[in-house]
Design brief:
By secondary structure, the chain is mostly helical. The chain is 69% helix and 0% strand. The longest helix is centred in the middle third of the chain and has 37 residues.
Length: 235
Amino acid sequence: MVAKPNQKQCLLLIWQAYAKQNLSTFKIPEVALEDPEMTEYITSLISHLLTSVRSNMKQKIANHIVSKSHISVLAKSLAPGGGYEMTTAHWAHIVFLRDSMIIFESVVEECKRRGGQKKLGAQQSAPAAPDHTDENEEEQAENDSKVNSKNAEERIWTSNKYWEYINMVLRELRAEACAAETTPVACAKYMEAFFTRVLQADMRNHPGSSSHPAVPAFDKVTVQWQKAIMTGLIW
């Protein structure tokens, strides 16, 4: 039985495929892909960078939840080298990440609470007297099977599963868009409208302050490598 790739491995495969199609963007010589040792090194480097970037993003998003600063301030802090051209479309996606983290943290706390209650209940419950008849053993086996099936469906979220949670929410959003619309273009507009509403609500709640003033957004992206990445990878 072949194991399914995990979320990080899937992301790595997407980046590898994109990098192969855009060698000049990443300044990767074509001959490097013909060398197994060099390919392995590049793959390892991409994996390390992805882990570092995701960890850095998560920490900055968490910090800005506390400071409640304008979304443009968070967006600027996430820009590579501070020189990324951030449009309001970028802002909307980053707001989604920030709002989702707030919800995710409450989900994690609820999972902890339920886990604590179950543990306490198990400790307080007296074990039932054993019954060794074949009939009772078969009944117990059937009940255990039902419980295991239920537990498999019940997801326990922990703080290190934030990006996995984001992927789940995005999958549900795409499914909702496809159910509501009949064409790919209409689905894309449905998604865009969702992110627009999220951004508008956030800007009303976090208008900026003298200590964290808003940073103007770019009207459009003009840097070619950034446009290529947005076209090929952005969700």
